[in-house]
Amino acid sequence: MDIRKRIGLNVQRIRRARGWSQEQFAFESGLHRTYISGIERGARNPTVTVVKDMADALGVTPAALLEYETASAETAE
Amino acid sequence: MDIRKRIGLNVQRIRRARGWSQEQFAFESGLHRTYISGIERGARNPTVTVVKDMADALGVTPAALLEYETASAETAE
DNA sequence: ATGTGACTAATAGTCCGTT
DNA sequence: AAACGGACTATTAGTCACA
């Protein structure tokens, strides 16, 4: 599991738990809508300041976005 | 506490716990010596893949490098 | 409401040094 | 052993038009 994909999954899971669309989350985090899209798909390799911005908007710690307990499947590493 | 400084402190603490110099750590992680220096000083804004590389070399999770429990002082946020 | 390719400005990351 | 600087290339940040 690539760390970019892991972050993408974590962001998407928490964003959906907030009931937000990517556009709403983009507004909350101050990032661009298409950039969020790229992150959730694991297509981007964000810097830690971007991780911090997203974590702040989602109300979680930056570390939480890097963790691997998606509760569900985490077979491959 | 800026997230870059937090990472720098975490990296430095764990690296020293391993008994490694910056040069040794640079070799182990495959990153450049001067770059490690900049990261530990909080002067750099690494990408998540670099965080992963450092975490792997140090034998910790990437999330561990972003956490704020340095056990000691963590007054300012 | 989201995925994607392409694009420019900024900066990540390397390599040469000196202190 | 480590901080720091300058210059350099590769890659990211951030945005857009469009599917």
From TrEMBL, chains A, B:
A single MF term (Gene Ontology): DNA-binding transcription factor activity
Stored SUPFAM superfamilies: lambda repressor-like DNA-binding domains
Keyword flag Mitochondrion: no
GO CC, any one term: cytosol
Keywords: DNA-binding, Plasmid, Transcription, Transcription regulation
Pfam families: HTH_3
Superkingdom of origin: Bacteria
Residue span(s) of domain HTH cro/C1-type: 11-65
Protein name (record): Transcriptional regulator, HTH-XRE family
Species per Swiss-Prot/TrEMBL record: Azospirillum lipoferum (strain 4B)
Taxonomic lineage: Bacteria, Pseudomonadati, Pseudomonadota, Alphaproteobacteria, Rhodospirillales
